[in-house]
Amino acid sequence: MDDWLKDSDEVGPSWLTVDLAIFTLRDNQLMVLLVERGLEPFHGMPAMPGGYVQKNETLREGALRELAEEAGIDGSRLHLEQLGAYADPGRDPRGRVVTVAYLALGPDLPTPVGGTDATRAFWAPVTHVEDGRLDLAFDHKAILTEALEEVRRKLEYTAAATAFCGETFTLTDLRTVYQVIWGRQLDPSNFRRKVLNTAGFVQPTGDQWLPPTGRPAALYRRGQAWLLNPPLLRAATPGQRG
């Protein structure tokens, strides 16, 4: 360490945490995982699951541990990636706390179980955060807003939509993911054409889903491509059919 740091008034102690923005679809709604804080600061308020990174952990290990401890969910099977770092000096009343946020996506994830310093864990509709019905602790609303836009963007350029589906799915299932997350209806024929014309996006299993009524539907699984070429772009105006 440089000697000038020892006596500097410009540098102080800081702490490192991880927070998780975890999205899933339940009952055709986009849901985010929240916990009710059992400790100060913001006791009793909803927040993203997360906590301090232990001294011998990687960031990813800390994120997976916090998810298991605070919500009882095994994150090792989720699509998990870093969203960004958040370090505004006033974001945490306890002092200078830098958090690295993770984005996680999964299909119809189970009911969470609160633990450690979380009184309870629950799935909340994303719309309840967006419209202010749920007031989140720290700067978590701002983080979730960025995370949500990142998910919407990823659906345009990557195969991230398949992370919300099971191992096999119909094109209707996949279209539902896009419609729910983008908040707009998509023309079934156009969507089918775009998906099947995007190399490596999905691949047929050779099996069919047999509904109680109606026509059978072909089953697909995620293909080998992650980046979509061409991309599936959103329309400029919400509510416009694509």
Model description:
It holds the Pfam family NUDIX. Residues 15-150 form the Nudix hydrolase domain. It is a single chain. The chain is of the alpha+beta class. Helix content is 25%, strand content 27%. The protein has six helices and nine strands. The model is unreliable at 236-240 (pLDDT under 50).
Which SSEs are present, and which pair or pack?
Elements: H1 3-6, E1 15-26, E2 29-37, E3 46-47, E4 50-52, H2 59-71, E5 79-86, E6 97-105, E7 118-125, H3 126-130, H4 140-157, H5 171-182, H6 188-196, E8 202-209, E9 217-222
Parallel strand pairs: 1-6
Antiparallel strand pairs: 1-2, 1-4, 2-3, 2-7, 5-6, 8-9
Organism: Streptomyces dubilierae
InterPro entries: NUDIX_hydrolase-like_dom_sf (IPR015797), NUDIX_hydrolase_CS (IPR020084), NUDIX_hydrolase_dom (IPR000086), WH-like_DNA-bd_sf (IPR036388), WH_DNA-bd_sf (IPR036390), WHD_NrtR (IPR054105)
Keywords: Hydrolase
| Average pLDDT level | 90
Per the principal axes of the C-alpha atoms, what is the gross shape?
A: elongated
Largest sheet: 7 strands, mixed
- What Rg, in angstroms, do the CA atoms define? 20 Å
Which percent range fits the helix content? 25-40%
The fraction of residues in strands falls at 25-35%
How many angstroms does the end-to-end distance come to?
Answer: 57 Å
- Figure out the total of helices: 6
**Unreliable segments (pLDDT under 50, ≥5 consecutive)?**
236-240
- Please provide the ordered H/E string of secondary-structure elements: HEEEEHEEEHHHHEE
Question: How many β-strands, per DSSP?
Answer: 9
- The helix/strand class is alpha+beta
Pfam families: NUDIX (PF00293), WHD_NrtR (PF21906)
Keywords: Hydrolase
Protein name: NUDIX domain-containing protein
Domain Nudix hydrolase: 15-150
